[in-house]
Specification:
The complex is a heterodimer.
Chain A: E1 6-10, H1 54-67, E2 79-83, E3 90-91, E4 94-102, E5 107-113, E6 119-126, H2 127-132, H3 136-149, E7 158-164, E8 169-175, E9 179-180, H4 181-187, H5 195-214, E10 217-218, E11 227-229, E12 235-237, E13 244-245, E14 254-255, H6 267-270, E15 276-277, H7 278-295, H8 305-314, H9 326-335, H10 346-350, H11 353-356, H12 384-391, E16 398-400, H13 401-408, H14 418-422, H15 429-435
Antiparallel strand pairs in A: 1-2, 2-16, 3-4, 4-5, 5-6, 6-8, 7-8, 9-11, 10-13, 11-12, 14-15
Chain B: E1 9-18, E2 23-30, E3 35-42, H1 50-65, E4 76-80, E5 83-89, E6 94-95, H2 96-102, H3 110-129, E7 132-133, E8 142-144, E9 150-152, E10 159-160, E11 162-163, E12 166-167, H4 189-193, H5 202-217, H6 227-235, H7 254-260, H8 271-283, H9 288-297, H10 308-312, H11 326-329, H12 343-354, E13 361-362
Antiparallel strand pairs in B: 1-2, 2-3, 3-5, 4-5, 4-13, 6-8, 7-10, 8-9, 11-12
Family (chain B): Belongs to the protein kinase superfamily. STE Ser/Thr protein kinase family. STE20 subfamily.
Organism (chain B): Parnassius mnemosyne (clouded apollo)
Domain Protein kinase (chain B): 11-317
């Protein structure tokens, strides 16, 4: 999960080359002789080698506080780290990086196009897992078909599709994005955006929806979890797994199936209607999304899916708090009308007063930065450590805590960006290898 | 004013094929006033290659907007048959890349480099003031003329820092890819990294540093290494160098030489060529100010790189005197001339004059 570059080895003397045993990350290794003073750096046993990762070190600290109230001095030169091997893997012309996210179908990883050096994201689909999801395989085929045709600034671009028959895997290569609105909302104060920011995303969502509806495509699963942001804050609508291309020759936009996320479903689907207007489903879900982005709440709630759908079916949304202002309240009420025929279409929404004027950033409000749970502050490429392994294979494997502190100027447990680290004048290989990626939090010396 | 009509131009020779076969550049005579011009002829099927068509359109729009003695100007453009013609002034000595390949495999004399780099910096200073990032500063985009003028071209990939009427503090996207991705060799580490910090006009200064090495060494730094290694080297802060007796004290053996420096630029590809180049580098001394200016421009941290204006005041340019005339410093370079034996150009001309085109339309931008 967490790309740990280093594991700790503790030993009293210099590293006993022969005695290195590599353990799985999940194992906590406790020295055999005693339960009380485990992790004894200066242990008389020269071969007591302990492998730890960040979580284990944290755990040990807690345990030490409770059980072990004596300090044991260890020279920083005696704490030795080993670079965790980042084995460079290629799929086609792409170099694989770290995991960006995980879904029921498989993982999403970062990739680098080795020819154009363009950052990409890849959705890795395992046939075995897809079979277990209802309509899994059909949905993926449909998504690929749709994404191949669609091309718009605010719709995720499918760059490439690769298959590995042997491993029964499918790779969907997409544009690289740095964050999901859902993750950003969860990390922000009040789980909402300032109106200024929500307005920016909402108008981009409208641009994307206008294009999709113009192309006769209904997304049917609009929600903050399916809205991504690129490095330059361009919003991308993603996940067309349950989207539907409407019959081009039919004057209506009738759909028959809804498979979207419950909290964002309109009353007609909650009430089990057999047929309903497709585009108005997207309008409703966009309304719930806007409601959620600006208030941090949902218009409908329920203890379980059944109760939730029951509440939606009644169609009386919780009124948004007064503080959002009359213009936004009116827009939300409009988009969340129970009768789909009364809901405005994208063009009407565009002319709404709240959409027309950019709301100012109120005093005390701060824009929320795009983030994802797994990347550093600057969203540096996670492929670089793999490339380093590939191109500088002879790099030094071991380094000590003293080296590390020397490199970092006594700020040992900080995550350094690769850019920060290579800013210096020094070009030697050891410097890079000892300090790229995440550093373990070691508070023992 | 130049007429947007193919019948007013007589194609005289082919100068180069470019953009991976998408376009050909011809020299031509503008009949109404007997002036030599360059015509770039694009084969673009707009229905299929909308993105390429957009890039050409962008190039023309940008050049229309920009007026500077060191930026290749735009004269006119028109559609004839299925193709688009863009007319520019003819730069008779060609691009610096061609000059390096044909006449100066070991690099240009330092004074010639200084004169060229100064003019490129003037162009960049202007572009940056207009809030453009060029993103493609390289020898093939620096054109020279027999009258001594130096002009920057390649505005196709330039990006404005103004997006939807707002000034951006940084950009994030890679420039549009060229056919063989060769453009990446000149790009700055922060641009290639594609992280949230983004890049700005100081990225061009890094490319200017790479251009320093290209002009002085003849070869492009990183040309012989895999693209991904070039990327990691740049991100790790490794800087290309000017090659002379200080940076290149002992001649390397042939294998090492080949693996480190691109000598694969046409004529000097033999082992003899390599050892000759090696001798040239080891025996020459470039000035300290030249080394210094290229090091300043190639700094890993964009914050530390000087601006175009600051670089123009660098001591390196003090060696230029008013009487120095670039074409005589590179005397062996022969200007592009009308080539009566260039049958393909002549045939094309014939074919074009036979074609009955109902109405000439100027591209309306």
């Amino acid at each position: 999960m967490d790309p740990r570059m280093c594991r700790q080895i503790s030993s009293s003397e210099s590293l006993p080359d022969a005695e290195i045993v590599e353990f799985e990350e999940s194992n906590i290794i406790v020295p055999q002789e005693s339960d009380d003073n485990f992790l004894l750096e200066g242990s008389p046993e020269p071969q007591s080698v302990t492998w730890l990762d960040d979580d284990q070190i944290d755990e040990l600290d807690i345990n030490l506080d409770q059980n072990n109230l004596f300090f044991h001095r260890v020279d920083s030169a005696d704490i030795i780290y080993r670079n965790k091997k980042k084995k460079c893997k290629m799929v086609g012309k792409y170099v694989m990086g770290d995991v960006l996210g995980e879904g029921s179908y498989g993982k999403v990883k970062e990739m680098l196009d080795s020819e154009s050096l363009c950052r990409r994201a890849v959705k890795i689909l395992k046939k075995r897992k897809l079979r277990r999801i209802p309509n899994g395989e059909q949905n993926v085929q449909k998504e690929i078909q749709l994404l191949r045709i669609l091309r718009h600034k605010n719709v995720i671009e499918l760059v490439d599709v690769m298959y590995n028959d042997e491993k029964q895997k499918m790779y969907l290569v997409m544009e690289f994005c740095v964050g999901v609105l859902q993750d950003m909302l969860e990390s922000s104060p009040g789980k909402k955006f300032p109106q200024r920011q929500a307005h920016d995303y909402f108008t981009q969502l409208l641009d994307g929806l206008e294009y999709l509806h113009g192309q006769g495509v209904v997304h049917k699963d609009i929600k903050p979890g399916n809205l991504l942001l690129t490095l330059d804050q361009t919003l991308k609508i993603t996940d067309f797994g349950v989207a539907e291309a409407l019959d081009m020759f039919s004057p209506e936009d009738t759909c028959y199936t809804g498979q979207g996320s419950p909290a964002f479903q309109p009353p007609e689907i909650a009430n089990g209607a057999e047929r309903f207007s497709g585009t108005k489903v997207d309008i409703w879900s966009s309304g719930v999304t806007l409601y959620n982005m600006t208030t941090g709440r949902y218009p409908f709630e329920g203890d379980n899916v059944f109760r939730l759908l029951e509440a939606i079916g009644r169609g009386e949304p919780a009124p948004p708090p007064r503080c959002v202002g009359p213009a936004l309240r009116a827009l939300l009420a409009d988009m969340l009308r129970r009768d789909p025929a009364l809901r405005p279409d994208v063009h009407r929404i565009r002319t709404h007063a709240w959409v027309q004027a950019i709301p100012p950033l109120e005093a005390g409000e701060r824009l929320v930065n795009p983030r994802s749970r797994r990347s550093d502050e600057h969203h540096n490429s996670t492929v670089i450590p793999y490339l380093v392994e590939r191109h500088y294979a002879s790099a030094q494997e071991y380094f000590t805590e003293r080296d590390l502190r020397h490199e970092l100027g006594d700020n040992g447990s900080r995550t350094m960006s690769t850019a920060e680290l290579s800013d210096g004048e020094s070009q030697c290989k050891r410097r890079w290898n000892s300090s790229c990626g995440r550093l373990p939090s070691c508070r023992l010396t | 004013m130049f007429n947007p009509d193919i019948n007013d131009y007589q194609l005289t020779s082919i100068i180069a094929e470019c953009c991976g076969g998408v376009a050909v550049v011809y020299s031509a005579l503008y009949k109404p006033n007997n002036q030599n011009v360059a015509i770039k002829r694009y084969f673009v099927d707009e229905s299929k290659e909308k993105e390429k068509a957009n890039l050409i359109q962008q190039d023309i729009l940008t050049r229309k907007e920009l007026q500077h003695p060191n930026i290749l100007s735009y004269l006119t453009s028109f559609v004839h048959g299925q193709e688009l013609y863009v007319v520019s002034p003819l730069m008779t000595l060609g691009s610096c890349r061609d000059i390096l390949d044909r006449y100066f495999q070991e690099g240009l004399p330092e004074l010639a480099c200084a004169i060229i780099l100064k003019d490129v910096l003037l162009a960049l200073q202007y572009l940056h003031k207009q809030l453009f990032v060029h993103r493609s500063v390289r020898a093939s985009h620096v054109l020279l003329d027999t009258n001594g003028s130096v002009k920057l071209s390649g505005l196709r990939t330039a990006a404005s820092m103004m997006v939807r009427g707002r000034r951006q503090r940084q950009l994030h996207n890679l420039p549009p890819p060229d056919h063989d991705n060769a453009n990446l060799m000149w790009l700055s580490p922060e641009l290639l990294e594609q992280n949230l910090k983004g890049y700005d006009e100081r990225s061009d200064i890094y490319s200017l540093g790479v251009l320093c090495c290209e002009l002085a060494n003849g070869a492009v730094p990183f040309a012989e290494v895999p693209t991904t290694l070039m990327f990691t080297e740049k991100v790790r802060g490794s800087r290309p160098q000017l090659l002379d007796c200080s940076s290149f004290p002992e001649p390397l053996d042939d294998g090492e030489m080949k693996s480190m420096y691109n000598t694969d630029s046409g004529v000097g590809d033999s082992a003899d060529g390599v050892s000759r180049l090696r001798q040239v580098y080891a025996n020459r001394k470039l000035s300290d100010t030249f080394h210094h200016i290229s090091e300043m421009a190639l700094q890993r941290d964009p914050e530390r790189r000087p601006s175009a204006t600051q670089l123009l005041n660098h001591a390196f340019f003090k060696q230029i005197r008013k009487t120095d005339f670039l074409p005589s410093l590179i005397g062996r370079v022969k200007p592009i001339k009308a080539d009566p034996s260039d049958m393909s150009a002549l045939l094309l001309q014939e074919k074009l004059s036979e074609m009955e085109i109902e109405k000439q339309t100027e591209w309306d931008f």
